[in-house]
Amino acid sequence: MLRFADRQIMLLSIALLLLFLSPSRSSRLCSHICQCYEHSDLVDCHARGFEDVPHGLPHGTWLLDLGGNKFTEIRSRAFAGLWSLRILVLSDCSIQHLQTHAFYSLSFLEKLDMSRNNLTLIPPNFSESLSALRELRLDHNALVLLKSPGLEHLENLEKLDLSHNSIYSLEPGAFRGLSRLRHLYLQGNRLSVVRHGSLTMLPGLEVLLLGSNNISRIAVNALAPLHSLSLLGLEGNHLEHLNFKTFLSLHTAATHLQLAGNPWNCDCDLHRVFSKLLSVRHLHVDDYHNVTCREPWQLAGASLAWVDSQLCVAETVTVLVITVTVIVTVFGALIMAEKKRKKRKYWESEGESQEQ
User: Domain limits at 321?
Assistant: First the structure.
């Protein structure tokens, strides 16, 4: 049997362990509404019916989950005093508006999840207190326009998710200040053109996803600033043709392209572009065998890889016919000119003999 002293030590150890792992009772908020864990500095207030950011949150909170509540807006200085916060979850909260200095005092925050809300714009002062942020999720909102200076203070940001919004335009300088950005997700928006200047100052960008937009044109030099790009997703857009120079401007070690799901007009020009793309060492069309034609109607649904060798046959025949026709015409003209010259010479000689 255990001695009394040993038994007391064991009971004390168990009590301390349970206290270490159990929810903290340091505040009424933690006692009655949210789950607060001292061990991980985690405060779980997910889907608790809050209509505003609650007061009385422990100042040592490292991770705060407020997702699934009904805030409508984030008020100014709503998180004042939470200097230790590193991860903040505000997803599924129906947020429509961010007041000035909404994230005041969160200068050490590293991850902010505001996905699946109703934001229509990023306020100009949005990033002023978020200089340490590394990951920002704004996917599945209602954003329509992206422009400076909303994001310019996010100098340490590495991943930005803007997918599944209604963004129709990227203004020049929209990503100014994001020199460390490596992943940019813009799929599922309403972009129609990738303009020159819209992707400047992103030298470290490695992944750019632009799939499922309305993109029909990419400016020749739009991709030139992306010196580190390893993956470019353009699948599911409205591209019919490509300019080879657009991709030749990518001076990268290796870039993988995704181009399937576009309404390609399979003609000889497109065949030439893809042939060049496939021959450039640092460019890789990952889904080339899934690239299909929409035009002309005779090739609708056919794989470009299957018909590409036939696309220039008609053009080649036409060129040959024209070339042969020109040669025959020129040769005929030379023969006629030679006949006329001989005939003229004959009559000139006849005239001289009659004079004598």
Answer: 315-342
